[in-house]
Write a structure and sequence with these properties.
Blueprint lengths: L7 E3 L6 E3 L27 H23 L2
Antiparallel strand pairs: 1-2
The structure holds zinc ion (ZN).
Length: 71
């Protein structure tokens, strides 16, 4: 349930005022998400860096297994 309705939102990176449906800040070019309850755009989750992190972790675990635990 929404308590307040916003017609603008603020960029979480540079605090410039954006339209409610803007997805990219015109000032700092960051991607911005939906407005939160404070009138500030949420920082969208960076799935690409999550995926890269998981892949490199998996590769590391695989290397440890390959190097030391393989029979
Ligand atoms: Zn910005």
């Amino acid at each position: 349930m929404e308590k307040r309705k916003f017609s603008i939102k603020k960029c979480p990176y540079c605090s410039v005022v954006l339209g409610l449906h803007d997805e990219i800040c015109f000032s700092c070019k960051h991607k911005v998400g939906k407005v939160n309850q404070h009138g500030i755009a949420e920082k969208p989750v960076d799935w690409m860096s999550y995926a890269l992190c998981i892949i490199s972790l998996a590769a590391f675990v695989f290397f440890i297994w390959w190097a030391f635990l393989r029979q």
